[in-house]
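Collaboration report, partner site 2.

Our partner group contributed sequences for two proteins of shared interest, and the home lab folded both. The records are reproduced in the order in which they were received, starting with the first partner submission.
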Amino acid sequence: MPSADAIACEERIRALWSSGCSGPDAALEMRALAGVLHVTAVGRTGDGGLDVIAIGPGAPASSTDFFLLNLCRARADAIVTTGRILRSEPDVHHGVQGTGDEPAMLAAFRRETLGKTRAPRSVVLTSGLDLDLAHPMFHGARPALVATGTRGAAALRARAGEADLEIAELPRPDLRAVVEMLAREGCGTICVEAGPATSLDLYREPIAVDELVLSTWEERVLPRGLRAGRFLPGQDLEALLPRHGPVAERIEESGRWSFRRLRRR
């Protein structure tokens, strides 16, 4: 029988996305779903487009968005990020986080509902030329794998010396190649945490994203100083990921937000 924490996590998912007894049970869906999972937060621009919200001071806050980020991490067998994100977030790690009971809820959901007992593998896609090897991502219980090209691998090996740094040297060091590598290694669910310059490659044909968890700040137009780069327009996302459930609307710390899941199949 699932613990109270696992049940509470499922109920929170249902409260957000399961629209009544005739609608899909989002928590039950997640037990069976696998593939490439992209999680991102965006804001609206004056011309009706979407821009990814830049990480840093002044970014609109949302406790629900933070919960969803950690839910995606809890679902993952591997989490892919980039050297750029490590530079902008010197303390980032992929351990389950949250406020109050959320870490215990998410850990129980991963272990009991999804049957995943090992921590997800962290992978950092980078050119390798200016990667901070002192970053905590490389010094935890399960240090991150570095995915890079031939030149970057040589530079990292020279800098690392005798340090135990795991490197995947790829002929084509891009996000699609990393995802393909992890799938070959048996990772069923791969969570992508990357900026638009990197992640949009997965939306080109043939599309490599199976599910998008999208948080949208709806309070006002996203200020230019908080824009990390243009994301795909909403109509393009719906064409590429035609299976989508209800949109959840919430008043968060920074005003109005909406939250949705879009799936390819």
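Second partner submission, folded after the first:
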Amino acid sequence: MFNEDICVRNSEGKFLFELPAVGALLLDLEHNEKSCTMNIPVCMKLKMPLDKAKLEKCVNDIIVKNDALRMSVHHDYRPDEFTDLIFDGKVGSEYKLWFRKEYEFKLVMVKAEGDNIDEKREDAKRIISEAANERIDVFNDVPFRLRVVEVADDENWIFLAVHHSLCDPPTLALLLKSILGAYFAPASDEKAEVSTAYMEHLDSLEKMKGSEKYDRTKAFWSETFKGFTALKASRLSDGDSDGKDFQFMLDKKKLSEVAKANKTSVFNVAVLIFHLAFLIQYGSYDTALTYAFNARKDKSLAGVMGSFIEAVNSRVFMDKSQKIEDLHKIVRKAVADGVANDSAETGCYSPLMLSYQELAAMGMQEDGASSVLEPVSLEVPKLYAPGMGFTIMETADALCGNAVYNKEFFTSEVVWRFIELFKELENIISEQPYLTVGELVEKFGASENSNCELIEI
């Protein structure tokens, strides 16, 4: 529970810090949807005996150096007083973060059951999937969970999850690299450059309000979305009960060839596919996409743990005469401009959201440890986006995606339609780059299931 006496203060004596708007939105979403969890999980299979005491010490050493691993949320009002679910970007935050002076981690280790190794592995996956879908009480506990499942004497599964409102995918990667690096080499935490400076970063964000940079960023987004009509979903009379996993996969080789030919990145090609899917699904040539961006551009923050994810928007206006190949430059500029003007205060203008991360960033290729570590595929936690959220993990061969959506506003048919469009557009942009936007729209015909009305922000 919150207690001022156990809080650590920053250099100016402050002990409460404002939670950035994206984190506040995630907490509201979790509160409004009782079956969801905002955990970001990863699991690694360690193919050797595990020294429990050593791993526990490594984690505790890293906790001492990183205030983000000792933080929780303080809410000034009753827990049931949260904001309503909205799409227009007006997200108010009454949440504050506080940091414990100290926290001692105790490793939870369980044995998988079964008559043979295959049954034990299935039991391990069940145990870890349950842990991934178990809520982390960020109001009373630290924002991460680490557990180990012993499958055999020489096979242990290390599960790690962080709460998305307080820690983001890059933080998960940094934490994983720090823990495993420290476990395999005593000096490896220096390589990860971990440091305890997240509260200072939060303080600097608050101080930025009212500054010239803040005013300039607000002016940029105001101008960028001038005249834009946002898509607002109407609430369904009957909630959608489809509980299937919406998984999909895009061919990285194809997308890499497209990226190389158009002097852009695989990420930008994926963004173009999303914009084109928006156009086809909603029949609007004025398209917008909100995506999660890693704001650790400042080198001084490269090793600082804590949530640096900010909502960045790209707006792309298309006309029927444009060729698909012409859109790459437009998307590239939209993404570059958005990233250059990223802000924790940026509103979400689109119900279509993209979270993108690279598998290499998870520390799975670290020298010295890769031979005894391999990733384990997990069930995606029950996370519900404000509209439709698509998480993409870029691997060596593919872009592996998974969709989540709010069942009170969207149907599973709409989500499946988007996934089908992603696959079809992947082929079109690689095989028919000279196709015009008008010809592309004619190819698919009018959408019949948008379930949205256009309104002015």
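Feedback sent to the partner group on the second submission included the following. The longest helix spans residues 412-431. Confidence is low (pLDDT under 50) at residues 82-92, 361-370, 451-457.
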